[in-house]
Design brief:
- This protein is an all-alpha fold and 117 residues long.
- It has helices at residues 2-18, 24-29, 35-62, 70-87, 97-104, 106-111.
- Helix 1 (2-18) runs antiparallel to helix 3 (35-62) and helix 3 runs antiparallel to helix 4.
- The longest helix has 28 residues, at 35-62.
- It starts with a helix and ends in a 6-residue tail after the last helix.
Length: 117
Amino acid sequence: MLFPTLFVLLYLGHLLADYPLQTDRQAAHKADRCAAGWAANLCHAATHITTCAGALALGVLVLDDVTVSLPVAVAALLWIGATHAFIDRRWPVARNPGELHRMRDPYKANAAGLREV
């Protein structure tokens, strides 16, 4: 039962970091090819790490069946931050025109109920 619990905790952290905790500035500039773009991207990735760390910590404190070793938690959080920083640069998804179009047009993304642009 540990895996489903961890999945839910990390997914909750992911949703919080991508939607209510991602600023409009981060969403608009995290793929820009400049220092400000990298700063927005890395700040957003750090939000993912922090939020998921909080979700894991809350799960360990509150739920009886959740135990995670520190090395495993650190590895998971670094993976989450690194993959978000990579994907949010947008060129990795450039081969999927529909996804890239939604990511480039924040108005259409918001109309579709998406905040992560």
